[in-house]
Amino acid sequence: MMRFAPAILSVAVTLGAAFAYFWFLRVPAIRNHPGLYLTGFALGAAIAAVAVWRSARWPNIAALALSVALLVLGAYFNFVFARLPAAGAVLKVGEAAPDFTLPDATGAPVTLASFRDQRPVVLVFYRGYW
Amino acid sequence: MQILAISPDPNERSQTLAQKLRARYRFLADRDLAVTRRYGLVHSRGGPSGEDVPIPTTVVIDRRGVVRWLKIADNYQVRPDPADVARAARGL
Predict the structure, then answer these.
(1) What is the ipTM for the molecules in this complex?
(2) Is residue A70 part of a domain?
(3) C-alpha distance from B2 to closest chain A C-alpha (Å)
């Protein structure tokens, strides 16, 4: 059993990184650094690679395959899939926000300019539930 | 400070979300993304079935209607820390 301690450690680090990222998704310091889970996968792959180099047994190879697969998928997700295009150059700090009127949850119209001289406004554009 | 959350979701679903989160958000429905488009924040064909979706963005506007702080996401996993937004809005 101890012979495969590095393989077990590799799997634990790899899966631990994935679970920890989702578990702490609401913590901005974790969520806003997707590089953390990639670092975990890379660490898992490095441990498994050393284990395979020392002994090419199947548990070591399986641990290496798992961590490399997650590293490749995770890197694709973070660097390609989750990327967003640049926004149009409408919004600039120091310039007026374009006015608008939209219905609220009860259907009542809300106009941005109605908050003028009343209080600051935070606009949050979000993608919704699909 | 007034938080206005804008998405193409229908109003009822936004209302449900607000109640579930017990958030003091006012949810506004931009069904056809007309306002989102005017703000330059449409990710065309960015949705799962190829529909246009908003680029997640947070804008802090002062009492004169001027943009004072802005965060436009370039990776949809990354969203501004609410503490940073609150700091930006404080004292405006």
Answers:
(1) 0.91
(2) yes
(3) 5
